[in-house]
Known about the structure:
Number of strands: 14
Strand order of the largest sheet: 4-3-7-6-5
Strand content: 15-25%
Distance between the termini: 74 Å
Order of helices and strands: HEEHEEEEHEHHHEHEEHEEHEE
Shape: rod-shaped
Number of domains: 3
Number of helices: 9
Oligomer: single chain
Largest sheet: 5 strands, antiparallel
Amino acid sequence: MSSPSIRRSLLVRCGVGVGVLLCVLSATVYLLVESSLYSETDEAIKETAALLANQVELENDAITYEWEEGLGANQTLVAGALFQFWNEKTGSTSRSPGLRWRDLPKFTGVDGAPLMRNIQLSDGHHARALGLRIYPFVLEEEVEAMKARGTLVDRKTLPQILVVARDAEPVHRALQHLRWILIGGSLLTLGLGYVLIERAVGSSLRPIYELSGQVQDRSSHRLDEPLDLPEDLPSELTGLATHFNRLLSRVAAIRQREKDFIRHAAHELRTPIAGLRATTDLALSQNRDASTYAAHLQTCQKSAVELGELVKRLSALARIGSDVAPAVLEPVELIGAIEACWEPFGLRAEARSLGIHLLLPGDPLTAVADPALLRIILNNLFDNAISYTSPRGEIWIKVVKADGRAEISVRNTTGEEPIDTERLFEPLFRRETSRHDAGSHLGVGLTLSLEAAKAMRGDLRARSEKGEIEFILSVPASDRDEG
Length: 483
């Protein structure tokens, strides 16, 4: 079954609408013209009937039709006229010369009232006719004469039926001609209208076709590019295109998250895999005794444990910004977590002869955080501090509680001028590494840490001064330490 077509639907509906409109207009024009023509004919018939009604006279006790006398005024009245009188008392009839021996239909309205109707003449022509009952008029002199003769007659006793007709064949032919003109004109208008509607519909649907082409192109290989919306895009499509662009931006964000996740995973896996490879290379470089191999295996086991922890952290990364699996916030003993995270970095700091200052409070401090995300942030901050601290420089790690928040400060010397701290959190941004032990950094650690902090309802900010840089992680503190 074929899909519904907007184009076909518009053409059919517009065609039907135009057709109905043309039919209504044609019928209206026809009825108005018909009414006008018949009104003129009917008025002429009524005038003739009024004149003829005054031509019936009671004279010498008999009915006289003055039009038969052929007087001057009557010649114009009689010429070409079609009328007929019936004497209802005697049954006699009188016709106009135009009828010859043929009769008109005899009719009147109710109780002899005037009635106009269509009739057909004996020659087959269409005609309009008026039928009514009339009574002869009586002059005053005739009334006096009848009184003198003692034969006074009431004119109401001498009713006459008068039917006046007029050949309507010219009107009928004119209306028939008008019908053909209206039908032909309507068909021609409908055909031209269809062509114009088809072009108008095609022009109106062109933005939809263009938009559809862009959507199809995006669906194949350019999902992260928004649609190009022309300035003349119809308002009916603007909302749809705007919402689709928002959807594309969400798709682009998801794809970017996938790329970022891959970069984050590579960043996290780099250190333990490098250590594991170095240990195995060293163990295989020459024959060793069992105790040495056991020591190397213990190192490998430790690296495997670290890789297991990395898997947990990568799972935590996937939860950042996700509504399906949000960060799992729970009470975390902050001092122990910091000491556990710092332990593997101590040897690196010692190897670089760095001064380490752990300024931790003596009392326990509990934060509300996701343990895996917190470990990711601390690992990145400690790794950056050791990598970017100037030779024989110093690192300060400080923890305080203020206004219901736990703040972890990691500050180190750099020996450099102040830098733009906002750029530090941009993806793939890397500081100049020629003077630091940071050549293998990918530039995603701080971006990841900021996202993780926000996922835990916290914040991560940086402050740079001449020769120093400080990162401050703020997370909600638990109330269990109070009282």
